[in-house]
Structures are given as structure tokens and as C-alpha cells.
């Protein structure tokens, strides 16, 4: 079978030409104006270029080349289509999904016909993949490893060349190439209170017109099945994207809508604009303007609760509780610091609200309290409780480690609410963290001896009281060995601190792949943040570390408890 290692050479050569062009940069003469800050050049995104079929390729070579041609989405995968018969080109649907495997080299490709068989007119080629993930037709990522098997039927053309006459829809990419061909974007939906924006991560092929792909997915699509019960969209079913493209000029997107948008109320229009504008930020858009039949549609925006801030590291040392930045002296937190000073019992964990007016505190004996300025109220005294998590609506989530189904959310007024459908298949739970929007909860659960990182939708009732978890979990990943900590990074990623076989920090995109790096020796706790650089890790000797590039640097020392912020 002919190796297709040369397929990637076009991309490498193009990069070399770009670098070589730097040698001709002018060093004399008057400076020339360039792009304004925030403006983009007209050129489309850099694209890997696959190799076309070669004369004399046998069935196995044709299928191998077709699979690698998945790396080039230009022209609706026009290079991949050159491997198909003329009739099959019109029926193959490359955008139906992506199978992601470990590597090109691990693919097993076998044909029923030898390459030198000149009498054969048809052939079957069986392909086996070491599949580790997939992306569906809506761009939703699933990290569920599974053996991938498929059959390709080929026929010999009148010109004597083999071409594919039947194949599964969708494409195949190895894990290294996937991130170069597809880009992560977060569609934004409202929570049920219309006060928070909730991300729904999708993956789209890298193209020049990303704003169109994102707008179409948000306006005409649906939230992912696992998230749908906890979110709302301002775009009703009768409103659709009119025209073929969203035009972006100077970071302003002109979005043409169907005439049904004319009947939307000012509030609905404002929510629509807010939702789409937030979804297009990662595509370089700062403002959205709606039009109907070419006429500008007056649409305002609505305020949303975006309280993800990093005002410093929260720590409790032998003297007081407070915040510190870059190792500076502790600054007291109004109200809470004085109240913690009055608590004689050893404290295990502290989760502080975004406004720093409420804390969910767990003592080392396991009891959980709500702490406000001048008051500490007992919330839960059940045995075996894991560290609690405070949500944006003031409810403290508690659960015993050996009874995951006994999940409660307790208000500061000690109103207890049982959460239905809490991890029904789990044998135990070690960590949970409610997201900053309150629409999702992440957890590390154990099922049949396997530790899983999962995220569930949170359903709420009157006054935003949590009532149950969604039926469908999002399987984020698996962890080998005990877990020391779980935290949110921003709104769409999780950090998991584990210690087997050595201290490791694994970052999971909530709806995407993961990456791992070493953690400080003796790591025992983690505090989340808006960005990865804001993460803090506490070690057993009381040292708090901050990650700087590929290394960890000491941020604070002599710490008893590393505090966390609600939603992180």
C-alpha cells in the first residue's frame, strides 16, 4: 500500500514560503500603515492541503488517500471528492460528522482485490480505526472511545482508475490533525432565568466565513441534548437566517433575518442580539446588526450576569482569611474575615460567592455551614459529605460520597431541596462544582470502579430553586486513580487534579478534547479561575502554586485552606 506521508507536504511547503517571504521585508523608506487593531486580513484561514488521487493507485491506496483528504475542507472537501465516482459525489455528505482516531499509522486498511489485479472491476475495502472521539452533524463533540469499522465499495472507471462508489457519510481525522482542521466555538444560550449566558461548545471546519456557520447553528439549530432542559433561546422556530452568508466588516456582523423577526418584541430582539453577539465573539465580531429585507432592524441588548472575575487568591492561613495577589499581604474580605476569625473548629473548605457576601464552609468534621457577615448557620450534618459547592443563586450543594443520589441544595435560610435524578448509575462521588451560570454541574463519580468526569444540566423551578438534573450526562472524560480536586476554568472547561501515577493536571474542554501536564508534588487542592493562568494549586506543605508556562511558581506560602469562588 502506497504511503501517504507526502499528503502533508503542501501545507509544510506553504508555511516555508511564508517564512521565506520575510527575508524580503523592507528595512528602509517611510513606514507604511497596516491593519487597524482588531481588523483581519482578507485572506482565508491557513488550510492543510491534501494530495489528489494518483494514476495507478490500487483500492487500498485510494481509500487511504480519501481518508487523509479529510484534512482539506475547502470547496466542500473538493479534493476528497476526487476519490469518488461521479455518481457518488452528489450523495456523499462530508458534513455529517467526524470520526477521530489516534493516528494515520494506526489505521488498518484491507482490500478484497490486490492492487496489481487488472481484471477486477469492483472491490471492497475494510477500514478499522482506533477511534477515540467523534463530532456529530451539529458540531457536538463526544469523547467515547470505540472501535471504528467501515466498508468502502470501489469500482473501476472507464479510464481504468479505481474510485469510491459507496462510503459512510462524514470524514475521518486523526487527533493531531483534528485541531488544525476544526475550531472550537461556544454557542450561547440563556439560562431559564434569562440572566446568564450558557456556552454550548461546537466544532466547525476552519473556513473564512465562520460567522455564517455559527449564526446558522444558533439561529436555526437546537442546544445539545444534554444541555437543552436547562437553557432557552431567544430565537423562535419561525425566525431563520435569510440569505447565504453573514457579512462581517470592521468586526460588525450584518445578519439578515426572515420577516418573522419583524413581529418580535423589543425584549426578544434584544435577547436575540445579545445571544448572537456573544456567540460570535470568538469569530472576531464585536457587534451584530439585524436586517430584514435589507432594512436595519432596531435591536438593543440586555444585561447578563457575568461575574467571572479574578480579584486575587482566597486563602486562610494561621492568622486570617483574605485575598492576596502575587504573594502580597492578605487583604480582609469585608464581613467574612471577621466571621471566620470567630470559628474555633478547623476548616476544611471555603467556597465564596461572587459578591463575597456568602460562603459555603465545611469543617474538618464534615459539617457544612452558610457563613455571612456576623452569622454562621448549619446547613447539613450528614456523614461522609464531600466539599460543598455554592451556586449563583445562593444554594449550597451537598452530597455524601457513598450516596450520590442523595444530593441536596440548601439555601442560606436552611430551606433544603432534594435534587432528583442525581447520578443514578454512580456508586460514589468525590467532587462536584456548579458552574457560574448555575445551569450545569460537573462531578467526578465512580461507576463500576471507573472514575468519570461528567457534566449534567441543572433544572430549576420557581425562584431558581434547583429541582433535578438532566436525564442525559455529558461524558467529559475518565480519570485513573484518586482525584484531589475539580474546578471550572472560565465557562467551558474543567481542571482535574489527580495523583496517579504522579501529580497531574488535566484540562477538559466541556465538549472537546483534553490535555494533561505535571502538577506540583504533593498537590491536595485546586481553585478554578477565568483562565488557565489563574488556576491555583495547594500542596500538603501549605504552598500555593501558580502555573507560568510549563512550570509552577510559588504564589503564597503557609496556607491552611485554599478558598474557591462559586462557579469556578
List descriptors.
568 residues; mainly beta; 7-stranded mixed β-sheet; 5-stranded mixed β-sheet; 40 strands; 13% helix; 38% strand
Notes on the protein architecture:
With 568 residues, this protein is mainly β. 13% of the residues lie in helices and 38% in strands. It is built from eight helices and 40 strands. Strands 1, 2, 3, 4, 5, 6 and 7 form a seven-stranded mixed beta sheet that branches. The chain has a five-stranded mixed beta sheet with strand order 21-20-19-18-40. Strands 26, 27, 28, 29 and 30 form a five-stranded antiparallel beta sheet that branches. The longest helix has 14 residues, at 266-279. The two termini are 51 Å apart. 41% of the residues are buried.
Structure described in brief:
The protein is mostly beta strands.
SSE map:
Blueprint: H1 9-21, H2 59-68, H3 74-81, H4 86-89, E1 97-101, E2 108-111, E3 122-136, E4 141-142, E5 146-156, E6 162-166, E7 171-174, H5 175-181, E8 182-191, E9 197-205, H6 210-220, E10 231-232, E11 247-249, E12 252-256, H7 266-279, E13 287-292, E14 295-297, E15 313-317, E16 321-324, E17 331-332, H8 336-341, E18 347-352, E19 359-363, E20 368-372, E21 375-380, E22 389-390, E23 396-398, E24 408-410, E25 416-418, E26 428-434, E27 440-447, E28 450-460, E29 466-469, E30 474-479, E31 483-489, E32 493-498, E33 504-509, E34 514-518, E35 523-527, E36 536-539, E37 544-548, E38 551-556, E39 559-562, E40 564-565
Parallel strand pairs: 1-7, 12-13, 18-40
Antiparallel strand pairs: 1-3, 2-3, 3-4, 3-5, 5-6, 8-9, 8-10, 11-12, 13-14, 15-16, 15-39, 16-17, 18-19, 19-20, 20-21, 22-23, 23-24, 24-25, 26-27, 27-28, 28-29, 28-30, 31-32, 32-33, 33-34, 35-36, 36-37, 37-38
Amino acid at each position: 500500500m502506497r504511503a501517504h506521508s507526502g499528503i502533508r507536504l503542501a501545507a509544510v511547503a506553504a508555511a516555508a514560503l511564508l517564512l521565506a517571504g520575510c527575508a524580503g521585508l523592507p528595512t528602509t523608506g517611510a513606514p507604511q500603515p497596516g491593519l487597524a487593531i482588531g481588523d483581519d486580513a482578507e485572506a482565508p484561514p491557513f488550510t492543510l492541503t491534501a494530495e489528489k488521487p494518483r494514476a495507478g493507485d490500487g483500492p487500498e491506496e485510494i481509500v487511504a488517500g480519501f481518508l487523509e483528504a479529510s484534512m482539506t475542507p475547502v470547496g466542500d472537501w473538493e479534493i476528497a471528492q476526487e476519490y469518488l465516482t461521479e455518481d457518488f459525489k452528489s450523495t456523499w455528505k462530508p458534513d455529517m460528522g467526524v470520526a477521530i482516531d489516534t493516528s494515520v499509522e494506526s489505521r488498518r486498511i484491507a482490500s478484497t482485490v490486490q492492487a496489481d489485479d487488472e481484471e477486477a472491476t469492483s472491490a471492497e475495502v475494510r477500514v478499522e480505526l482506533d477511534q477515540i472521539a467523534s463530532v456529530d452533524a451539529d458540531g457536538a463533540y463526544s469523547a467515547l472511545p470505540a472501535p471504528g469499522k467501515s466498508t468502502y465499495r470501489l469500482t473501476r472507471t472507464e479510464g481504468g482508475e479505481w474510485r469510491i462508489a459507496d462510503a459512510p457519510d462524514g470524514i475521518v481525522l486523526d487527533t493531531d490533525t483534528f485541531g488544525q482542521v476544526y475550531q472550537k466555538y461556544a454557542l450561547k444560550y440563556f439560562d431559564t432565568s434569562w440572566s446568564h449566558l450558557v456556552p454550548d461548545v461546537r466544532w466547525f471546519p476552519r473556513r473564512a466565513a465562520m460567522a455564517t456557520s455559527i449564526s446558522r447553528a444558533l439561529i436555526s439549530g437546537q442546544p445539545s441534548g444534554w444541555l437543552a432542559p436547562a437553557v432557552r433561546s431567544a430565537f423562535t422556530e419561525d425566525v431563520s437566517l435569510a440569505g447565504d452568508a453573514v457579512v462581517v466588516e470592521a468586526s460588525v456582523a450584518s445578519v439578515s433575518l426572515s420577516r418573522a423577526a419583524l413581529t418580535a418584541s423589543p425584549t426578544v430582539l434584544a435577547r436575540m442580539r445579545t445571544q448572537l453577539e456573544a456567540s460570535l465573539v470568538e469569530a472576531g465580531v464585536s457587534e451584530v446588526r439585524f436586517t430584514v429585507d435589507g432594512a436595519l432592524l432596531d435591536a438593543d441588548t440586555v444585561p447578563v450576569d457575568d461575574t467571572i472575575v479574578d480579584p486575587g487568591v482566597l486563602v486562610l492561613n494561621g492568622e486570617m482569611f483574605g485575598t492576596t495577589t502575587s504573594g502580597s499581604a492578605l487583604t480582609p474580605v469585608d464581613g467574612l474575615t471577621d466571621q471566620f476569625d470567630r470559628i474555633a473548629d478547623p476548616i476544611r473548605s471555603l467556597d465564596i460567592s461572587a459578591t463575597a457576601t456568602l460562603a459555603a464552609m465545611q469543617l474538618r468534621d464534615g459539617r457544612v455551614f452558610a457563613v455571612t457577615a456576623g452569622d454562621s448557620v448549619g446547613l447539613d450534618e450528614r456523614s461522609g459529605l464531600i466539599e460543598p459547592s455554592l451556586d449563583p443563586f445562593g444554594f449550597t450543594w451537598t452530597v455524601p460520597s457513598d450516596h450520590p443520589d442523595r444530593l441536596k441544595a440548601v439555601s442560606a435560610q436552611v430551606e433544603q431541596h432534594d435534587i432528583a435524578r442525581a447520578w443514578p448509575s454512580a456508586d460514589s462521588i468525590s467532587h462536584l462544582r456548579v458552574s457560574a451560570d448555575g445551569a450545569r454541574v460537573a462531578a467526578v463519580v465512580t461507576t463500576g470502579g471507573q472514575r468519570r468526569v461528567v457534566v449534567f444540566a441543572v433544572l430549576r423551578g420557581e425562584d431558581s430553586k434547583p429541582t433535578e438534573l438532566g436525564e442525559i450526562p455529558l461524558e467529559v472524560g475518565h480519570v485513573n486513580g484518586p482525584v484531589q480536586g475539580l474546578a471550572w476554568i472560565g465557562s467551558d472547561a474543567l481542571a482535574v487534579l489527580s495523583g496517579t501515577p504522579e501529580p497531574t493536571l488535566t484540562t477538559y474542554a466541556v465538549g472537546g478534547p483534553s490535555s494533561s501536564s505535571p502538577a506540583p508534588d504533593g498537590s491536595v487542592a485546586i481553585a478554578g479561575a477565568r483562565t488557565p493562568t489563574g488556576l491555583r494549586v495547594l500542596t500538603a506543605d501549605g504552598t500555593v502554586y501558580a502555573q507560568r508556562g510549563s512550570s509552577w511558581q510559588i504564589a503564597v506560602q503557609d496556607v491552611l485552606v485554599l478558598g474557591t469562588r462559586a462557579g469556578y
